[in-house]
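B., you asked whether I could sanity-check this one before it goes into the benchmark set. Here's the sequence:
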Amino acid sequence: MKVLYVAEIVGRTGVYAFKKGLADLKQQKEVDFVIAGADGVTGGNGLGRNHAGYIHKLGAQVLTTGECCFYKKDLVEQLAKLPYVLRPDNLNREAPGIGSRIFKTGTKPSDPKIAVGVLLGQSGFQRLHGNNPFSLLPVLLERFRQETPYSIIDFHAEATAEKGVLFMLAAGHCSAVIGSHNRVQTADERILPGGTAVITDAGRTGSADSVGGVNIEKRIQEYRTGIPEWTREAVDKPELQGVLIELDAAGKACSIERIRYPVPDMPLKEAREETAWADHDR
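And here's what the prediction gave me:
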């Protein structure tokens, strides 16, 4: 099985890059299953209801989120009806939505199933706090093993050290752990003993000429003034980033490949269309 994890889609440029690049990548790499990081789709932070349906329709079987999972009210109100959208699994039970699920990879009864779960790190997040991911991970993976040998964890965390420790805990017990949130692709993809593929951060899908997908001047202004400004996404050099992981019949990783797939610059007409989507979801 070949699983494509599309790194965090950031704003209108990210949606455009995903739309333009996914079909070609799926054909070239013979992809069987697509997971998309969707924590920054709408306006660079959060995921709106319409955007969720749009990304799913474009070809993402699963959309993962992180600390921005509840930023858009229209999504929160519909989470129970959107089984393909996952929020972090280590939130309180009262939180809406689900954090892990077993998915079918095809329409035939013989097609294998794959388990996908999201965990939120504990360091650096101020607005949303998760329970201990290290305590939950073994329980979550044991449940997955009862259903399928294929299992992917999206670990949405700020601290590199926290990601590294979770990788070691997961080694040999799941197919892959993919780090997300930092929006900068790291060059440390590898397969740990026991067949677990890991990468500290899969990167971002959006503008490659930006700071985490956001306008450079606005980010400089934020650091100078201390006033956050996340509403202006960058548009230059759109690129789909992520990782491609190949799994054997036992659910062990055979390979992990970093993906950087540039697409043509966004025409003005399409930029306006993507802006309209974002405005509707805000």
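One thing to flag: The chain has one domain: 2-281. Otherwise nothing jumped out at me.
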